[in-house]
Amino acid sequence: MTDFAALLQPDKSQPARTLHVVHPDDWADWLAHQPPRVRAIAAANRLTGKPGNAAILPGDNAEDWSALLVCNEAESSPWRIASRARALPEGTYRLAAGDPGAAALGWLLAQHRFTRYRTPEGDTGARVLLTSNPAAIADAVRLAEATARVRDLVDTPAADLGPAEIEAAVGDLAKAHGATVTTTHGDALVKGYPMIHAVGKAAAKGREPRLVELEWGPADAPRVAIVGKGVVFDSGGLDIKPAASMKLMKKDMGGAAHALALAGLVMANHLKVRLHLVIPTVENAIAGNAFRPGDVLRSRKGLTVENTNTDAEGRLILGDALAKAGESAPELILDFATLTGAARVALGPDLPATFVNDDALAADLVAAGTAVHDPLWRMPLWDGYDEMLKSDIADMVNAPEGGMAGAVTAALFLRRFVPEGALWAHFDTFAWRPAARPGRPKGGDAYGLRAAWELLRRRYG
């Protein structure tokens, strides 16, 4: 992974290039107070003070140059100066005014690339940013590492990231923080986690389904469970997806990636909680023993589920995982899943559809997301749609007919496996950025991670 700590350093008055960040409203006044050579460069580059205008500004000597960015983003935005972190020459930089603050995160993430399968590029130099607040460096680096972990896991093709590799990633995290890991594997799932087994049993040898659990923290601390959907590849099963829909299904373990990253933040920051990370991980494959439309599945909780769509498998494995998480009486459960296309139709890629069973918790989550520029959008757990889950032969179906309110009915399905009295939030996240933006390349990405972390930090930090 990128050495983020090397890219954000304390300002000890060492030599550095100056980065001027000017708001469009201040452009005319700023330019008027610049020497003629700077005004000439602005004119030559046709800079008008529009957001995104940028240039290299000459100094008194040939080597004495600085950089300019016109930006209308708030100072609290992590992406305020991210565009410059890749565009400027390698070297060391400090802001002309103020401290980078939250913008340091975008500076770090802009220099991270998923290079596992790429021929090394020529430009490998680092752009170092100086900060007058050394105490903030560790937080920025941890957030960058957590976000990069999500990106790298999601970007890795399914051929190189199966259930065993998800288990190994949990093991690595546990080793780094002194946590314990328990795995229930393959046919051992039949008795305790029958829906996880049903979904993953058709996978090839070596890619058997499993439930991976991590425990960390004092036994007497408030229990917090983090659950992540880990479908390493989703063919759709016997209700097979068309090719266009299958193309990005390596990202269907994005929920597990978010859960792993969030658990890492909890442990690295020593939150006063008893952490329980629960990741059901499977490949939804096709073989003679694949689960079928019409099968009735028993769940860990005892509820029976008529499988009406093998491509609605994520909620099945999460059902067993949520039931397990609930058995330890957590006061808070957070789950992440790339669960429904309906959420993306409604909200697009940037806004995780967020379902919460408590109004105060929902308000705290939305406020946390707003504070760290990681927006969430609350969706309703509409009781009136519960009847859509009725089955003629079982306790419930996994996928109602008609497709109406698909994100809502999926969340209502999950709610049936959440214990009474536990606070619960479900993030139906996309985990993929379809188009690049400064600091955020096209590909796997974290949505809702920083919002959830901010909530946990405020509650247990």
From TrEMBL:
TM spans (from-to): none
Highest taxon in the source lineage: Bacteria
Sample GO molecular function, one term: metalloaminopeptidase activity
GO biological process terms on file: proteolysis
Cytosol aminopeptidase domain ranges (all copies): 309-316
Pfam families per the UniProt record, alphabetical: Peptidase_M17 (PF00883), Peptidase_M17_N_1 (PF21337)
Record bears the keyword Hydrolase: yes
Keywords assigned: Aminopeptidase, Hydrolase, Manganese, Protease
Cellular component GO terms held in the UniProt record: cytoplasm
Keyword Ribosomal protein (UniProt): no
Family recorded in the similarity comment: Belongs to the peptidase M17 family.
UniProt-listed PANTHER family: LEUCINE AMINOPEPTIDASE-RELATED, PEPTIDASE B
Name listed for the protein in its UniProt record: Leucyl aminopeptidase
